[in-house]
Specification:
Length: 245
Amino acid sequence: MNIYQDIQNAVFSNKRLLAVLIDPDKMRAEQVEPFIKKVNATKANYIFVGGSEVEEQATERIVSEIKKFAQLPILIFPGDVTQITNKANALLFLSLISGRNSDYLIGKHVEAVKKLKNTNLEVIPTGYILIENGKQTSVEKVSHTKPMSRDNIQEIADTAKAGELLGMRMIYLEAGSGALHPVTEEIIKSVKQELTVPLIVGGGIRTLDKLNAAYNSGANMVVIGTAFEEDETFFDELKKSQEDK
C-alpha cells in the first residue's frame, strides 16, 4: 500500500478525500468500536490519530484498538515523537512551518529517526501551517509558536509554497482542534493556487456547509475531529449527503 500515491491519484481524479481525526487522549478503548462503526458507514478515506498532548503509549494502544474494527489506512498525526507507532500505516512527518521554533522545524524530526529506523511506516513529509482561529490552541501552547494571522493571506500562501519548495509532499492548513473559526475560503483558494502538491484542511469544520466550502475552495482532503466527537448527528448528516450523490 502506497498511501501518498493513492492521495495523488485521488487528487488527479478530482476526488474529495475525507479523514477522521482521533485524539488518543480523548477517546477510551471502549469508545472505539461504536465510533469506528459510524466512520465505516461514511465515505471516509483515512483515519488520523494524534494530538498535541498525549500520554506515552496511548497512541499505540488506541491504534491497535482501531485496527480491530477499521479497514481504512491509519496515519499518525503526531504532536510528539512519543506518538510514533509501527501499528499504523503511515506517518505525517510534520514540519510546523508557520512557526519559528527549531524543535518543530527539525529538532523533533532528528529525535524521530531512531524510532523510524525500526518501523515500516510510510513517511510523508508534510508542511503544517497553523492559522489563528479566535482562541489559543493546544498546538500553540505546546510548540511555543504563534499561529499565522488570518488577514495576512499572501504570507500564508508564500509559506505554503516555501514548504513545497523545501520538499514537503503535502501542505496542511490547520485552524486547530475546536477552532472557533475554520480556515477561510479565501485562504484556501490562495494557497491552492500556489501549490502542485495535495492540500489538507482541518480545524473548526462542524457542518456540511463548511465541509463543502473547504472542498469548493480547493482542499483535496478535509479532516474532521471535534464535529464527530461532539455531535452524533453529524455522522448521519454526512452519510446521507454522500448517499445522495
